[in-house]
């Protein structure tokens, strides 16, 4: 891993990035491995497109395994430590039937 990077724990959920442009100003399909970072960690930059988190890779581990996803959006309803993942990323670490899974992750 990146060596000494902080590890976060929270809930993993999934959403449809294909419904519209994310906070980072980019468009993505549901099969791409992308994620929305929780609002407390994403913060409230004047221009969210310029957020330092946009485009950062996260390594996420859930009940079924580990995947890597790129931050492309902000999740307003997520608590600190939570990630909202595209189906492409979520399916590698958990079952959509569960809806919400325990995750650990780091940048």
Describe what you observe in this structure.
This protein is mainly beta and 107 residues long. It has a single domain (7-106), classed as Barwin-like endoglucanases (Beta Barrel), CATH 2.40.40.10. Helices cover 10% and strands 36% of the residues. It has helices at 39-42, 87-93; strands spanning 7-14, 34-38, 57-62, 65-75, 83-85, 101-106. It has a six-stranded mixed beta barrel with strand order 1-5-2-4-3-6. Strand 3 (57-62) and strand 4 form a beta hairpin. Pfam families: DPBB_1 (PF03330). This is RlpA-like double-psi beta-barrel-protein domain-containing protein-containing protein. Residues 51-104 form the RlpA-like protein double-psi beta-barrel domain. Keywords: Signal.
């Amino acid at each position: 891993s990146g060596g000494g990077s902080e590890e976060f724990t929270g809930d993993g959920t999934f959403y449809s990035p294909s419904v519209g442009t994310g906070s980072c100003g980019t468009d993505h399909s549901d099969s791409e491995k992308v994620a929305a970072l929780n609002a407390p960690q994403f913060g409230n930059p004047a221009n969210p497109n310029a957020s330092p988190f946009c485009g950062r890779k996260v390594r996420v581990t859930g009940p079924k395994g580990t995947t890597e996803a790129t931050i492309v959006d902000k999740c307003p309803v997520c608590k600190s430590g939570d990630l909202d993942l595209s189906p492409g990323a979520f399916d590698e670490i958990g079952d959509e039937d569960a809806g919400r899974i325990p995750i650990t992750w780091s940048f």
